[in-house]
Amino acid sequence: MSAGPLGELEFFHGLEPGLLAVLADLGRDVTLEAGQVLFREGDPADRFFVLRRGRVAVELHDPVTGSHVVDTVEDGDAVGLSWFVTGTTWVFDARALAPTDVVVWDGVRLRAAFDADPALGYAVTQRLARVIYQRLRAARVRMLDLYGARR
Amino acid sequence: MTATVAPAATGPGGEVMAPRLFRVVGTRLDTADTVTLALAALDGEPLAFAAGQFTMLSVFGVGEVPISISGDPADPTVLHHTVRDVGGVTRAIVRSGPGDVLGVRGPFGTGWEVGHGEGGDVVIVAGGIGLAPLRPAVLELVARRERYGRVVLLYGARTPTDVLFEPELDAWRDRFGVDVVVTVDYGQPGWAGRVGLVTGLIARAGFDPSRTVALSCGPEVMMRYVAAELLDRGVAADRIRLSMERNMVCGVGLCGHCQLREIFTCVDGPVLGFDRLRPLMELREV
Question: Is residue B285 pLDDT above 80, yes or no?
Fold first, then answer.
C-alpha cells in the first residue's frame, strides 16, 4: 500500500515529482484518533511520520508529575526524527491531540532507499536538517524564558 | 508613517511632570501575577489616548513606572492598565484596591495606527504581557472589522495559566472572525493546545504579505525573530510596527534613559516601524 500525493505537504515542499513518487510508494496513510499514541520513549525508533492534518504532542513523561508537552506539530510537519540514526530508541512520546492523518514510513526501508538513491537521501536529509535546525533554535530561545520575570 | 497620537495630558498647571490623580474603581486578576486596574480621574476629565500609548503610573511614596494602556480608546472615561507584578513599583500597583489613588502622567508616545491596515490583512504577534498594549489595537480592529481583510492574532505565553484575556480571545475569535492562535512555552499536564515559539505560527497564518500590516509587542528578542519571519514572508519593513518598551523615566524625551541611539522611545516610540528600528536592532550594543 502506498501513500497519497505528498507534494502539498510543507515538509516536502520543492521536492521533484520523481522523488515524491518514490516516497509515496514507500509510505502509507494512517488516521489516528485523538489520544492515540504514535510512539513511546524507549521503544525502537523505527518509523517516520509527516502530518497531513491534525496535531501531535511531543511529550516527556515524568513518573511523579505526569506527561509534559515539549512541542506540538501540525499539518505538514515531520514528527519523530530518531529513526534517521540507526539503532536508536525514541527519546520522547508522541500522541495525537486531535483526529490526525499522517503518512508513515518504515525507517529501515526508508534508509535503504536513501542508500540506493543518494539524491533521494540528500533531498530528504536537507529537509530533516531544516526541521532539526528550527527545533534546536526554538528550544534555545525557549530556554531564555523570555516571558518570565523580565519582559 | 506619521504618528497620530492623542495630545499628552498634563497635570496641574499644565505641567507634564506633575501627575493627575486617578482613583482605582475596579480590579481584575488576570493571572497569578497580573492585574488589570480600572482608573477614573478625580477631576472627572477623561483621558483620551491612542492605542499603543503609555502613561507614567505612580504609587505615592513608592515610585513611578511606564505602563501601556490596555483599555478601549473609544472609552476615555475609564483608564485601564494591565500590570504584571515584577517587584517594586509594579508590586505596589497590583496590590492597589478600589478607592486607592494613583498618579498618572501622560498619555505619552506613538500609537499603533491601526487604520493604516484598512483594506488589507492585519497580523498581530504578542508575547507574554505584550498582549496588554495590543489590546486597544484589537479593540479598534474589531470595532471596524468590516474594513479589514484577515485579522490574525498570534499569542505566545509562558504557560497556559499565563494566558491573558482568555474570555476576550474567545470573543474576538467567535464574534469578530479574528484568527486567534495561542501557543505556550511550557504545556502543563492536560493542555491540549499548541506548544512552541510564537514565531513558528507566522508561516501558517495565511495572510497576504503585500497588503499586510503587522503589529508586535513582547520581549525584544521575540520581536527580532518576529520581524525577520515577517520580512521573509514578504511584509515590507515599514509595515511592521513594534512596541519598544525601554526604560522610560521622564516620558517626554528629556532624560535619555529610554534612548535607542538617536531615538527617544518615549516620544519617538514606543511604537516604531521596523524600517527605522532594523539597523538599531541589529546592533549588539544598542
Answer: no
SS3 category, B241:
strand
The ipTM is 0.85
**Backbone phi and psi for residue A119, each to the nearest 5 degrees, phi listed first:** -65, -40
Q: Domains (ranges, CATH) in chain A?
A: 10-143 (2.60.120.10)
Confidence of residue A121 (pLDDT cuts 50, 70, 90): very high
What is the assigned CATH class of domain B12-108? mainly beta
| Long-range own/partner contacts, residues A112-118 (CB < 8 A, 24 or more apart) | A113/A22, A113/A26, A117/A22
List phi, psi (to 5°) of B13.
75, 15
Domain with CATH 3.40.50.80 in chain B: 114-243
In tens, the pLDDT along B180-218 reads: 999 999 887 778 899 999 999 998 899 999 999 999 999
Q: Which residue has the cell 502530518?
A: A51
A33 has a chain B CB within 8 A of its CB:
no
From the list B172, B173, B164, B182, the residue with the least C-alpha distance to B82 is: B164
Confidence class of residue B4 from pLDDT cuts 50, 70 and 90? very low
Pick the CATH number of B114-243 from 3.20.20.370, 3.90.226.10, 3.40.50.80, 1.20.1300.10: 3.40.50.80
B121-127 and B151-157 strand pairing:
parallel
For B230, counting Cβ atoms within 10 Å of its Cβ (0-12 exposed, 13-18 middle, 19+ buried), the class is: buried
The residue assigned the cell 484568527 is B179
Output the nine-digit C-alpha cell for B12. 496641574
CB of A142 within 8 Å of a chain B CB? The answer is yes
Residues of chain B with CATH 2.40.30.10: 12-108
Nearest CA in chain B to A75: B204
Taking CA–CA distances from B217, the nearest residue in chain A reads: A151
Helix (H, G, I), strand (E, B) or coil at A11: helix
B19 interfaces chain A, CB cutoff of 8 Å: no
The nearest alpha carbon in chain B to A145 belongs to: B158
**Total-model pTM:** 0.90
> CA of B49 to nearest chain A CA: how many angstroms apart?
24
Query: Cβ of B88 under 8 Å from any chain A Cβ?
Result: no
User: Which of A141, A146, A150 to mutate to probe the B interface, most B CBs <10 Å?
Assistant: A146
* A chain contacts of residue B130, beta-carbon cutoff 8 Å: 151
